[in-house]
Amino acid sequence: MEKRILGLDPGLAIVGFGAITLQQTQGKVQDFSVKMLDFGVIRTSSDMEMSQRLATLFDDLNTLIDDLQPDLVAIEKLFFYRMANTILVAQARGVLMLVLGQRKLPYVEFAPPQIKQALTNYGKADKEEVQEAVMRELDLEEMPKPDDAADALAVALTAAFQL
Amino acid sequence: MEKRILGLDPGLAIVGFGAITLQQTQGKVQDFSVKMLDFGVIRTSSDMEMSQRLATLFDDLNTLIDDLQPDLVAIEKLFFYRMANTILVAQARGVLMLVLGQRKLPYVEFAPPQIKQALTNYGKADKEEVQEAVMRELDLEEMPKPDDAADALAVALTAAFQL
């Protein structure tokens, strides 16, 4: 059985996305393998007013989901950093969640420490360790860029490991 | 010239709305008057998962705007209280802003101290003083309930005074 998982790293200026396929084979021993399908970012320009940036996110995420047809979405929970920034990211994340709701797409959410734990067995791993785990698990020769896309692949992998 | 202003008090469980008309008459002295048009709340149930609550907000705000046909929307800026709550409200506010963006509706934003200042001439006025000003300005016999609807009328009035 194959499952497509779309990982999302929420943001206002940049939303990272990373899609993987999870292949589960049921033999004597249940086995599974993951493969990279696509990754990249959705960007919105700070020249636009907020409501237009959110409308762009809405349209672009819908297009992305039309293209990738995921079975499951994995979306990162917000990490508290600076308050003003957190509010902007939360507003953008609300639009992403809306799209999942409108399309009745199943989704799972993970906080950063859960993602780190799933990929490195250490909840406080640093960015580089997580990215190396992403490369290893997906058998990649180069690190996906920008970081937001790599982060999105990490969220997708966390969902795959949980299934 | 008449202008319809829709005030919004963002939230996840409850979004307050309050619509007023602003009548500007141009005689020897420019004069204006405000009238209450409608007020109420949009509610989403905590029994629904987040993405469905946001989809409900999206649909209900679109219906409300279809009904009221505002010329301008005035939306309250987020006030920082508890972090977890602020994130939930910000996600909901993102959906409200998205609707404004999709409909290309002009909007203005005011922080709570700006609203208090506009209605009472005192940026740190308490809730009761602001509500009394709303009643006085709109010539109401009773306080609009719940508080979220009264707050939304206060935002709409702030926009009217600024015009």
Automatic annotation (TrEMBL), chains A, B:
Mg(2+) 1 binds at D9, D148. It is found in: Cytoplasm. Binds 2 Mg(2+) ion per subunit. It catalyses: Endonucleolytic cleavage at a junction such as a reciprocal single-stranded crossover between two homologous DNA duplexes (Holliday junction). The keyword Nuclease applies. Mg(2+) 2 binds at E76. Coiled coil: none annotated. Keywords: Cytoplasm, DNA damage, DNA recombination, DNA repair, DNA-binding, Endonuclease, Hydrolase, Magnesium, Metal-binding, Nuclease. Its EC number is 3.1.21.10. The active site is at D9, E76, D148. Its cofactor is Mg(2+). The keyword Hydrolase applies. One of its GO terms (molecular function) is DNA binding. GO terms for biological process: DNA recombination; DNA repair. GO terms for cellular component: cytoplasm; Holliday junction resolvase complex. It holds the Pfam family RuvC. Its main location: cytoplasm. Homodimer which binds Holliday junction (HJ) DNA. The HJ becomes 2-fold symmetrical on binding to RuvC with unstacked arms; it has a different conformation from HJ DNA in complex with RuvA. In the full resolvosome a probable DNA-RuvA(4)-RuvB(12)-RuvC(2) complex forms which resolves the HJ. Belongs to the RuvC family. The RuvA-RuvB-RuvC complex processes Holliday junction (HJ) DNA during genetic recombination and DNA repair. Endonuclease that resolves HJ intermediates. Cleaves cruciform DNA by making single-stranded nicks across the HJ at symmetrical positions within the homologous arms, yielding a 5'-phosphate and a 3'-hydroxyl group; requires a central core of homology in the junction. The consensus cleavage sequence is 5'-(A/T)TT(C/G)-3'. Cleavage occurs on the 3'-side of the TT dinucleotide at the point of strand exchange. This is Crossover junction endodeoxyribonuclease RuvC. The lineage of its organism: Bacteria, Bacillati, Cyanobacteriota, Cyanophyceae, Nostocales.
